[in-house]
Design a protein that fits this description.
LysR_HTH_N, elongated, HTH-type_LysR_regulators, 6 helices, 6% strand, single chain, 2 domains
Amino acid sequence: MNQRDIELLLSLEQTKNITATSENFFITQSALSKRLNALEAELQVQIVLRSRHGVQFTPAGEIVLKRIHQIHQQFGLMQSELTEITHEVTGSLKIGVSYNFARYQFSQVLAGFKKKISQGGNLGSNCQQS
């Protein structure tokens, strides 16, 4: 089980629907069903009951949900604490701006963002006229 599996199960808990959850994650219903089957095989328990009316979590599935809520919360706390310690901005940023904004103001925005990127960070830009 990985972080994406946790997010899939949390979404499935909210929607109670394989179609809605698969749309939320931009995957096919078949891919989501296969992932659920793989998780059930990995954990050696049935997590959900599938029907025309949606999904229902089994008693074992409820235990899984209880624990993944705790894991998800702890993971979020860890990320927050690490961000506070490092005070670094991480990740990728893709911005679309108009030509005039890019020409006259965007360099100031990029300069401000560059100051917040960690020393090892990388900043690149690509301008295109439409």
